[in-house]
Predict the 3D structure of the following.
Amino acid sequence: MLFLTFFIGLALNAMGYIPPGNINLTVAQISINKGMRQVWNFVLSFSCVEVCFTFGMMRFARWAMSDINPNVAVSQVRLGTLVDCFMIVLLTAMGTITWVNRKKQPVTKEEGKGSNSVWYGMILGVLNPVQIPFWLFFGNYVILHNWINTDYLSLVIFSIGSGFGSALALYCYAHFATYIQEKFTLSSLIINKSIAIFLFCLAGYLIVKQAVILF
C-alpha cells in the first residue's frame, strides 16, 4: 500500500509538470545556459520544498475543499483570481529577466555557482501558487476515492513520491531542452528569446482569462 501511495504521488506531480510553465521553462533555460550540473542543484532544492509543500497541502486538502473553493471571495476577490494575478506578476517578471539577459553567454559548469541554482530552486518552490489549486483538487480526489490513507506515514510517503515526480519531470525537461538545442543547433539567444516570449504568452493568457471572467 505504501508503494502504491508513493507511486500515486510520483505520477500525479510528474503529470502536473508536463504542461509548459514557469518552473519547467526555467529548468530548460538553466540546462542550456549553465549545464546539467546546475539543473541538479535547482531540481533537488525545488523538489525538497515540493515535498514539504505537498505534505502541508494534503493535510489541508479535505478541510479546504469543504470550506474553500477557487470561486470563494477573499475581500470580494476570487481565490482563483488572486492566484492568477500572482502568476501574471511572476511570469512577467521572469519573462522580462530572461529577455534582458537573452544575449548573455552561457557559462561553463566550472564558472556557474551551484549555490545560486539551489537558492533559485528553493525560492521558486515557495513562490509556486499554481500548486495550491492543483493539490486542493487532486489531493481531495485521491483521499475521497480512498487511493491513499491519511495517516502521517502515508502522507509523508505520498509527499516524497511527489518530490520524486517533480524531479523526474523537470530533469526530463532539461534533457529535452539540451537535445533540441543540439539537434537543431539552436543558439542560447534563440532559446532564451523563445522562453521569454512563451512566459509573456502565459501571462497574457491569464490576463485574457481574468478579463473574460470579469466582463
Notes: Helices lie at 2-16, 22-33, 36-67, 79-100, 114-126, 131-144, 152-183, 188-214. The first strand starts at residue 73 and ends at 74.
